[in-house]
């Protein structure tokens, strides 16, 4: 397998990629790095995902979820075990940030154990609430578990213990 980052192609995910995406995500779920995603949830969110391919093989996936008019979340970045350290995560994050800019977002949030990776890409740790109280109140209405994680709500704390909240201004 090539280690050349330019050999990586990142493109929007298709429904035919979903089972492969789940296969990429599962090892991280077992290591308690990512939350598990039911197959149906991946199909429902396929339009949020990009996938990375190298030599025609699926080697990574990641998602961008819009939270508010200026704010999005980078989610579920997973690289194939044999592709770690070979530019896959970087290529996907760049593609997701480009997508965020095209959508008009000016800030990106992530909840991660991979603080060094995100720090290298301009993300900084945040402890305080990053939205105004009226936006916070609106976001409370979302049924999305990731939004609850972003809001740092008590009922999601067991799933997020040890994760770091990070933010980047685009």
UniProtKB/TrEMBL annotation:
<keyword id="KW-0012">Acyltransferase</keyword>
<dbReference type="GO" id="GO:0006526">
    <property type="term" value="P:L-arginine biosynthetic process"/>
</dbReference>
<feature type="domain" description="N-acetyltransferase">
    <location>
        <begin position="8"/>
        <end position="142"/>
    </location>
</feature>
<dbReference type="Pfam" id="PF00583">
    <property type="entry name" value="Acetyltransf_1"/>
</dbReference>
<dbReference type="InterPro" id="IPR016181">
    <property type="entry name" value="Acyl_CoA_acyltransferase"/>
</dbReference>
<dbReference type="GO" id="GO:0004042">
    <property type="term" value="F:L-glutamate N-acetyltransferase activity"/>
</dbReference>
<dbReference type="InterPro" id="IPR000182">
    <property type="entry name" value="GNAT_dom"/>
</dbReference>
<dbReference type="InterPro" id="IPR010167">
    <property type="entry name" value="NH2A_AcTrfase"/>
</dbReference>
<protein>
    <submittedName>
        <fullName>N-acetylglutamate synthase</fullName>
    </submittedName>
</protein>
<dbReference type="GO" id="GO:0005737">
    <property type="term" value="C:cytoplasm"/>
</dbReference>
<keyword id="KW-0808">Transferase</keyword>
């Amino acid at each position: 397998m090539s280690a050349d980052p330019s050999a990586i192609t990142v493109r929007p995910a298709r429904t035919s990629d979903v089972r492969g995406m789940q296969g990429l995500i599962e090892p991280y779920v077992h290591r308690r790095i990512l939350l598990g995603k039911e197959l149906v949830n991946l199909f429902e969110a396929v339009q949020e995902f990009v996938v990375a391919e190298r030599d025609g093989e699926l080697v990574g996936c990641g998602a961008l979820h819009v939270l508010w008019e200026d704010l999005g979340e980078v989610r579920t970045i997973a690289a194939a075990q044999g592709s770690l350290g070979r530019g896959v995560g970087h290529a996907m994050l760049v593609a997701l940030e480009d997508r965020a800019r095209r959508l008009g977002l000016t800030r990106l949030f992530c909840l991660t154990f991979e603080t060094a990776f995100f720090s290298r890409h301009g993300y900084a740790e945040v402890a305080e609430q990053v939205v105004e109280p009226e936006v916070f109140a609106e976001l409370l209405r979302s049924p999305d578990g990731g939004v609850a994680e972003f809001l740092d709500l008590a009922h999601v704390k067991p799933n997020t213990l040890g994760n770091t909240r990070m933010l980047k201004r685009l």
